[in-house]
Amino acid sequence: AAVNLAGLLMHKGELDEAERRLVDATRVQTPERPIALTALGDLRMKQIKVAEAEQSFREAAGLAPREPRPRIGLVACLLEQEKHADALAEAERLGREFPDLPASSECLVEALIANGHAEQAMGVIDPCIARHGASPLRHGLKARICEAMGDRDGALAAFEAALALDPNFEPAQQGKARLS
Fold first, then answer.
1. Backbone angles phi, psi at 112, to 5 degrees
2. For the whole prediction, is pTM greater than 0.90?
3. What confidence tens digit (pLDDT) does each residue in 132-168 have?
4. pLDDT by residue (tens digit) across 45-66?
């Protein structure tokens, strides 16, 4: 219930009150606690409290190790803080533990790009697209990999593929404009 209320408060822009409610919900040892910690991590990322978000995601992941969402948030926090090696290690662990989850592959690709391993990232994203289907995000990731590899035409093609799926996908719009 606290997580749902916090979600409504966030939607209304009442971030401080949402944070207070989530913090209160994390103090009680209930089955909802990992969910509240994950929601608190998400909120703190929105508030640019990245180190605090990392702490929330780590605690949630410890309480619910079979839930991928806190670990996905943790990878995002580590990347945001430029802890690239830690992000890569966590993303690799996530991929081993949740191999059928597209978000696992997407996290791994983000971490590989951040660590300068574009060719390895391409080896992850192509099978991900083949296995899980096309999405604007996956094509956007492929475009970023192509850019990192110096393949401007490949990046433009991937951005165009993303825009064919969602003409309003802002990262692809920006990427295409930057390369055109």
1. -65, -45
2. no
3. 878 999 999 999 999 999 999 999 999 999 999 999 9
4. 989 999 999 999 999 999 999 9
* Local structure of residue 56 (DSSP, 8 states): H
Q: What is the DSSP string of 2-19?
A: HHHHHHHHHHTT-HHHHH
C-beta separation of 92 from 109 below 8 A: no
- Give me the residue label for tokens 């926090």: 77
Instruction: Tokens for 21, please give them.
Output: 């409610």
Burial class (CB in 10 A: 0-12, 13-18, 19+), 32: middle
Q: What is the DSSP letter of 117?
A: -
| Amino acid making up residue 63 | L
Q: Which two tokens stand for residue 178?
A: 């930057």
Q: Which two tokens stand for residue 101?
A: 């989850």
Cα–Cα dist 169/66, whole Å: 31
